[in-house]
Amino acid sequence: MTSIIPTQSHYWLKNAHIPQPLLEPTVQPTDSAAGPSPIQTTPLQSVKGDGLVLMDVEIEQGMIRQVIPAGSAISSHPAPSSEIPNPEIPNPEIPNPEIPMVDLQHKQVWPCFVDMHTHLDKGHTWEREPNPDRTFLGAIGACDRDMTRWTPDDLYLRMEFGLKCSYAHGTVAVRTHLDAPRSQATVSFGVFKALQAEWRDRLTLQATCLVLLEDFLGSHGEQLANLMADTPGGILGAVAFPNDDLDTQLDRIFALAKERQLDLDFHVDESGDPHADSLAHIARAALRHQFTGTITCGHCCSLAVQPPSQVQTTLDLVKAANLGIVSLPLCNLYLQDRQQAASGSFLQTGLAVQEKLITGNTPRWRGVTLLHELKAAGIRVAIANDNCRDPFHGFGDHDMLEVFNLSARIAHLDHPYSQWVETVTATPAELMGLSTKGKIGPGRPADLVIFKARTFSELLSRSQHDRVVVRNGEAIATDLPAYEELDPLMHRQTSTL
Ligand SMILES: [Zn+2]
Question: Domains in the chain, start-ordered, CATH in brackets?
Answer without folding.
Answer: 2-110+444-475 (2.30.40.10), 113-431 (3.20.20.140)
